[in-house]
Amino acid sequence: MNDSTFIFSFEKNFDFDGAMVWIQTYWTHSFVYVSIYLLLIYLGQRWMQSRRAFELRTALAIWSLSLAVFSILSTCRILPQLLAEVQQHGFEHTVCDRSFFKENLIFSFWSWYFAMSKVVELGDTAFIILRKQKLFFLHWYHHVTVLLYTWFSTQELVPTSRWFILMNFTVHSAMYSYYAFKAMKFKIPRSIAMTITTAELLQMVGGLYVNWQAYRQLASGRVCGTGMWNIKLSILMYASYWYLFAHLFYNSYLKKAGIYDYITIVNSEMSRSAYRKRNVSRIVNEAFHEFESQNKADQEELTTEVETELITSLTQEKSTSCHIRPFHRS
User: Fold this and answer.
1) Residue 269 confidence (pLDDT) above 60
2) What is the pLDDT of residues 195-219, one digit of tens each?
3) Are 106 and 85 within 8 A, CB to CB?
4) C-alpha–C-alpha distance, residues 151 and 104, integer Å
5) Is 56 left (phi over 0), alpha (psi -120 to 50) or beta?
6) What span, in angstroms and rounded, lies between the C-alpha atoms of 129 and 116?
């Protein structure tokens, strides 16, 4: 443990041995929690089919803010411990040595509550269902697999998990803060959401890298506390996360935004107008309006055809009516 770090009494008095006995005895209960979670998703969605969505902004803000504060405090406590360990023993040591968990009570305390928080975070899905928002596969798949893997790795004291915990806490600090401010109706730039999703992608790359380093240690014949089975399982998990988050990033920020079409329009307009030395900001604005007008072109054309047909029809009816009236008078 970093001697220069102040340790709180609740961290110092953490019963590491008791916690390990409990998790090694009951870690399989995570499968029960996951089963109940999936059942509640199914029942909850059916129950909400005939009901109006709940707003729940205040509850969501409190929920997200609480998890954000927890993640921020955890990051601040464990980051200095890991950095000190790398400085003293090297990175390779951190992916293979188990003794760190028992010797460093600061890390042990916060990593224990990290494992417990994975059960609490299942509550995220309740807000999605009760607010009748779209439930993506990535959301519930991520919650299920993280809970199962975290409890399994905790009872085995897998050394690589210290990096997984730190990366997850760091990303969740930003993610839950974002959710909290959004629930409080703060106007947050779209670039912030893109940055958070990018950080999640980098987290998956970091997870793959840590596993690769552990594999190298095993392949070199070194005794390593991270087993090959755990490495394979973790690589499969992180690879699937990366693919799903990359797919989400593309659909959310590239495909839906029409960014490729917009860039094409800007480049085309810049090329056509360069010789006229027009102002760059004016070109971009015109390109944006052209991009917007393209989306409305079909609708306007259809509307024009309908209006023309309607006017023609009314004109014919009026003309017919004028010719008929004199004969009725006679």
Assistant:
1) no
2) 999 999 999 999 999 999 999 999 9
3) no
4) 19
5) left
6) 23
Buried b (16+ CB within 10 A) or exposed e, 249-288: beeebeeeeeeeebeebbeebeeebeeeeeeeeebeeebe
Structure confidence by residue, pLDDT tens digits, 222-247: 999 999 999 999 999 999 999 999 99
**pLDDT tens figures, 122-168:** 999 999 999 999 999 999 999 999 999 999 999 999 999 999 999 99
Contact 220, 92 (CB under 8 A): no
Phi, psi of 191 (to 5 degrees): -65, -25
Q: List, by residue number, the catalytic residues.
A: 142
- List the structure tokens of 17: 């041995």
Cα 128 to Cα 126: distance, rounded to the nearest angstrom:
5
Handedness of CA 321, 324, 328, 329 (dihedral sign): positive
* Largest separation between any pair of C-alpha atoms in the chain: 115
pTM exceeds 0.70, yes or no: yes
d(CA 95, CA 159): 5
Q: Which segment of 110-114, 160-164, 286-290 scores lowest on mean pLDDT?
A: 286-290
Question: What six digits make up the tokens of 221?
Answer: 């014949």
What pLDDT sits at residue 39?
98
Q: How far apart are CA 124 and CA 108, in angstroms?
A: 25
CB 110 within 8 A of CB 12: no
- Cα dist. 300→190, 290, 296, 297, 313 in Å? 30, 14, 6, 5, 20
- Can you count the helices (H) and strands (E) in the chain? 14, 0
Tokens of 142: 């991520």
